[in-house]
Amino acid sequence: MTTEKDSKSWDFGRFVKTLAYFGVVPLLSNLDWFQQLLGSKTNPKLDTQKIMNGDRLTENSLNLTLFDFRHSAQDLQNIWGAVDDVVMGGVSQSDIKISDGKAIFSGNVSSANSGGFASVRTRNFDPPMNLAGYDGIELNIKGDGLRYKFLVRSESRWDGIGYSFSFDTDADKWMKIRIPFTNMIPVFRAKVVPDAHLNSSQIHAIQLMLSKFEYDGGLNPHFKAGNFQLQIDSITAYRN
Known about the structure:
By secondary structure, the chain is mostly beta strands. The chain has four helices and 16 strands. The strands form three sheets. Strands 2, 3, 5, 6, 9, 12 and 16 form a seven-stranded antiparallel sheet that branches.
């Protein structure tokens, strides 16, 4: 009988596509045939100014809306990409798409092959977003009862330090999750980096993740292998 811990076939092609999408394999990313295979442009950075000019970044007196999927004509395929445990030999799969005015982060997460996480991440913003005047990030989401992570990155490196915040969801209930920058945990591959400090004036990328891992070897107490779904209405920088 097959269990979650049994070895499963690793998808090398999906591994290469992930690295190429984010520009980690620049030579391969620039080949015409590979761009056609991906079905999207492989420019590894996002023009932040173009996002702002396209009314995707709007500001009022207190908050700055980074993504409003309710009124979005965003080409998600060229902004967000999956970063699943295929990058370390796992078999979990996820994607993000627009449906009924919501972004849907969904897929199947598996512990096979020592894996156990699925995520979606933006390509690097260019120039990085300056959120120094804000206190944190607010997510308007509807989950499935599982615990997720939200991460920001203040350096452009692909495999660098991320700043993480874990949050629980109530199944089929819309929730507003406030994430103070001061409460975000610096991590490198789920290990805490004690001396790292988030530079909120240099936000290069953001990420949503479902993982069986918490921090420093701890496990997510609300993790469950199998299908998952997180709906995202908006992502906003807020001031207190």
